[in-house]
Amino acid sequence: MLSEEAVYICDACIGVCNRILEAMPETFAGWDAMTNEQLLAALKPAAATVDATRAVLQALVEVLRQRGSSWEAIGGALGVSRQAAWERFS
Questions:
Q1: Taking the model in full, what pTM does it have?
Q2: Is the distance from CB of 23 to CB of 50 less than 8 angstroms?
Q3: CA dihedral of 10, 11, 17, 21, whole degrees rounded to 10
Q4: 8 A C-beta contact, residue 76 and residue 61
Q5: What is the helix (H) or strand (E) element at residue 63, kind and residue range?
Q6: What is the pLDDT of residues 20-36, one digit of tens each?
Q7: How many CB atoms lie within 10 A of CB 22?
Q8: DSSP character string of 11-61
Q9: Taking Cα atoms as reference points, which of 70, 35, 71, 74 lies closest to residue 57?
Q10: 57: Cβ contacts below 8 Å, ≥ 6 apart
Q11: Whole-angstrom distance, CA of residue 17 vs CA of residue 22
């Protein structure tokens, strides 16, 4: 049974998804099937995707911290220790 709840995605996440799609060729036969030129052309959009994803993650953590969430809770949600979360995001 399908839920009738609406699901929304933020503009930042849409941007990340678009960057991922730009980094992948329309028909993907694997990295080995690509020419060096194709691989080199894929580097910039792939790097942009990583940067955008990091920015979204950092923003989420900052909002959680502003709301009083503990480093332990944030680390637990990420599957890392409190210390690892603090070192990465503070």
A1: 0.64
A2: no
A3: 150
A4: no
A5: helix 36-66
A6: 777 666 677 888 988 99
A7: 13
A8: HHHHHHHHHHHHHS-SS---GGGS-HHHHHHHHHHHHHHHHHHHHHHHHHH
A9: 74
A10: 89
A11: 9
